[in-house]
Amino acid sequence: MTAYDFVVRNGTLIDGTGAPRRAADVAVKGDRISAVGAPGSLRCDSEIDATGLIVAPGFIDVHTHDDTALIDNPGMAMKASQGVTTVVCGNCGASASPYTRAEINHFLSLLVKKPENIAPSFAGFAAKVEAAGPALNGAFLVGHSTLRMSAMGEDLMRPATTAETAEMRELLDASLGEGAIGMSSGLFYPVARAATTDEVAETALPLGKWGGLYTAHMRDEADDILAAMDETFEIGRRAGAPVIVSHHKTSGRGNFGRMRETLPKFEDAMKRQEISFDVYPYVAGSTILRKEMLDRAERTLVTWSDTMPSASGRDIADVARELGCTPHEAADRIHPAGAIYFMMDEADVQAAMSHPGAMIGSDGIPFDTHPHPRLWGTFPRVLGHYCRELGLFPLEDAVRRMTAYPAARFRLTGRGTVRAGAYADLCLFDAATVIDTAPSRSRSAPRSASIAFSAMARRSGVTASPQAAARAACCACRSCRPSRAPAVEGRAPSAFVAAGTFHALVTLLRLDRKRGDRAGFEALERDRLAGLLAEAVRTILDALERLVDLGDQLAEAVARAQLQGAVGLGGGAVGEIGLGQTFFLHVLQRLVRLLDEVALPLQELLAEVLLLHRVHELFAFGRPVVVRQGDRHRNRSLLTRGPGAGARSI
């Protein structure tokens, strides 16, 4: 029996601490790193040749809304393809538990699309995540707005009463005891805007008892940002909790350049209490569509709309023209919906990101039809654009902001560094080529050129190069498919599994090699394949039905055009553009949008079917891991393995 399960050799190690890179081999046994040694000093029957690649800890996405994406999309390709191995969920005051109501309102629809994914207790929700078997580790915050909706129903445009605050506090206390790591707030949003500082601080009191965190989407990120910072710091002090300010920015043209005010304020407050913040590497933000935000943004793109699906991916001004109304009226008419808002200054983004207290968080919204590019491109963009191209910080520091630093801030014991005894969360990437190519107008996955490799149990003992492994394991990976939309900022997409570029899947970094689990995995895979194929068939049938309808409209448009003499059968316009031609062009535009809508999801479904088949052939998957806050006495993290396995402290 070999001492290790596999060895990553010949790579350049950046261990996450900020220390200089060095050549090293890394050995993995089970779910832990067994040894880190000089090149050639560690040998195993199963080896991965990382020549020319950086070996780093798996990245930690500290700001996500992936709560139920871990259940609905357990492959988590949008994060796995970037090198992310752990996601922190429940941000901005929104979490899927503890939620005691049946209805899912507009605010909660940001992260919950299926009622069956909510739970009245954190323990119940954690069980749902574990049963789904997600590929990534998850750490969960409890949302203050979720607590508010549970205690107050829809009567949210007022401060909570003393009794309601006590109810929220009890729900939070129970959740922390069941494994949640802290509380988030989103006082910016209508559902929590009426909450007073006292309400939030009183609700948050159990954080000190359990050693939990307080993260805040602040009440204001524009004109009144300094007062909002004071409020946030006060809540943390009163709760006895470390503070993490979410997606720090100064939004709106009138606030461009105000990082010169906010960053010194952070530094001053950091002398008295534990405070940090996260940043995403884009000048545009994304959340639910709110008409009051339109005036603040230079431009607004619709990311999804339940009322008007065809609005997805379009400028709100274009949607308003189609509806014959103002952009503000259009926002009301296509509600509920989401949007991307261009409202930040690049110099401010760089100033915030380069601050020593900054971590990296994507803040991507996983269920958007046309998501913000940060969902797929955040981490490769930091590594490729800001680190390599702009030289904003050394590569070692970029990795630190994504690994050891957030692991320390979020109390993720045993993660964020490559060292003997740490969890085997690993990421490999080519520092010379890694870049984001995530488009802002497409639902399809970009090819980020970020490498992620995890401690999977390889069934073959053959030593493989990263390029060979990529061709074998990742030919169906969504991160390798060509993007149908233009690359962000005109950047050309990276080559498809080209030399020096390795695309691989990040999967669960815990191994369970018991043969008894094989049959269960195969049964689960068969069920999932059947479900995916059924969904693909439904998508095709729906597309055909809609195409037939559009064909009828197209025929009608041609007939109208001929009658009006605007368009002849041989083509070519005659005289002024008439109603027939206008309608004809409108239908053609709808046809193009429909094809884009239908083709991409179908492509993703079929890719996932192929991916599951490939995974079944090559790898033995591990079980899911939910990162939980430890017991009140030792304050250690707990990890709960999959169904039937108990928790153990680390």
Overview of the molecule:
The structure is a single chain. The chain has 650 residues and is of the alpha/beta class. The protein folds into 3 domains: 1-59 and 373-509, Roll (Urease, subunit C, domain 1), CATH 2.30.40; 92-245 and 623-650, TIM Barrel, CATH 3.20.20; 520-620. Strands 6, 7, 8, 9, 10, 11, 12, 16, 20, 21 and 22 form an 11-stranded mixed sheet that branches. Strands 1, 2, 3, 4, 5 and 17 form a 6-stranded mixed sheet that branches. A hairpin with a 6-residue loop joins strand 21 (638-640) and strand 22 (647-649). The relative contact order is 0.13.
Helix share, percent: 25-40%
Major β-sheet profile: 11 strands, mixed
- What's the rounded overall pLDDT mean? 77
Principal-axes geometry comes out as globular
Total number of strands = 22
Low-confidence stretches: 440-521, 565-580, 613-650
What is the name of the CATH topology of the largest domain? Answer: Urease, subunit C, domain 1
Features:
single chain; 650 residues; alpha/beta; Urease, subunit C, domain 1; TIM Barrel; 3 domains; eleven-stranded mixed sheet; six-stranded mixed sheet; disordered C terminus
Helices and strands in order:
Elements (H helix, E strand, L loop, with lengths): L5 E8 L8 E8 L2 E6 L9 E3 L4 E4 L1 E3 L7 H4 L4 H4 L3 E6 L32 H11 L4 E7 H9 L9 H17 L3 E5 L3 H4 L3 H7 L2 H5 L2 E5 L7 H15 L3 E3 L13 H12 L4 E5 L4 E5 L10 E7 L10 H8 L3 H7 L3 E6 L3 H8 L4 E3 L13 H16 L5 H8 L1 H6 L16 E4 L27 E2 L7 H8 L42 H49 L14 H40 E2 L5 E3 L9 E3 L6 E3 L1
Parallel strand pairs: 1-4, 1-5, 6-7, 7-8, 8-9, 8-20, 9-10, 10-11, 11-12, 12-16
Antiparallel strand pairs: 1-2, 2-3, 5-17, 13-15, 14-15, 18-19, 20-21, 21-22
Helix pairs in contact: 4-5, 5-7, 7-9, 9-10, 11-12, 14-15, 18-19
